[in-house]
Prior knowledge:
By secondary structure, this protein is α+β, with helices and mostly antiparallel strands. The protein has 2 domains: 7-33, no CATH class; 40-111. The protein is 19% helix and 41% strand. The protein has helices spanning 2-13, 16-26; strands at residues 40-46, 52-59, 62-70, 76-83, 86-93, 99-104, 109-111. A 7-stranded antiparallel β-sheet has the order 1-2-3-4-5-6-7, with no helix packed on it. It starts with a helix and ends in an 8-residue tail after the last strand.
Amino acid sequence: MMLKLSVKYFFKSRQIGSILLIILILANKIPLSAQHKETKHRVNVLYKNGEPKEKGQTRNKKKNGIWNYYTETGRHDHKEKWKDGKMRWAIYYTPKHRKAKTINSKGDTTYFKDCGCAP
């Protein structure tokens, strides 16, 4: 009798879907991969000489956010913006750390003068 009242209550309150989902997750009937568990990691790759090569973050094993890239001497070479594994833009620098060129998500490239200003 108690079970019938509980089931009727949940059907009336429209919470049966979320309650059923919780029960199935707790009973391990739904695999963890289907539970949308998000994983985030910081990535730091080094050259053999110990200088940083690239730094960034991944989300669900895909590049995400700002990634910075360096030369073997430690100079900041370029940076890229990623979202869910897709590059949105990139900025390349001169040795004096001025903009040399930019690339957008479509692959269009804009080159800059030596001063770092637009052509």
